[in-house]
Design brief:
This protein is about 75% helix and about 0% strand. By secondary structure, it is mainly α.
């Protein structure tokens, strides 16, 4: 799932990032920054919950690219709208884990931290509403 998100949302974020070497730098900054912020959020959650665990937070980077795609295709209103949708999805994930029907544990804090990090970095590095994006034809 992370790979699919990275390809779809990363393509849009990359298009919004400009041209030349700055494009690469902006894209990598948003992706890696989201991975780091998502990882820190997950680590903080584990500390607060007095739990321990390990996670590969590529999902934090994918979530950050989701935020970048929202910003690049619709500015602040879409960024907030997609953020709320993403939060609802995370609540559903937490619920399925709590009732025991989730097949595996998910790093929800990494998802939310990655989205927040991607949103912040996108606002700094990308032009809002700079890309037209449509799924399908």
């Amino acid at each position: 799932m992370n790979s699919v998100m990275i390809v779809i949302f990363g393509t849009v974020a990359c298009e919004a990032a400009g041209q030349g070497w700055r494009k690469v730098l902006r894209f990598l900054s948003i992706f890696l920054g989201s991975v780091i912020i998502g990882g820190l959020a997950q680590w903080a959650w584990w500390m607060l919950a007095r739990e321990s665990g390990g996670a590969i937070v590529a999902s934090g980077g994918a979530s950050g690219l989701f935020a970048a795609m929202a910003w690049a295709t619709g500015g602040r209103s879409r960024l907030v709208q997609f953020g709320l949708i993403w939060a609802v999805i995370q609540v559903v994930i937490v619920f399925t884990e709590a009732v025991g029907i989730a097949p595996f544990s998910t790093a929800v804090a990494a998802h939310m931290g990655g989205y927040a990090g991607g949103a912040l970095l996108s606002v700094i590095m990308l032009k809002p509403s700079s890309v037209r994006f449509r799924l399908g034809r």
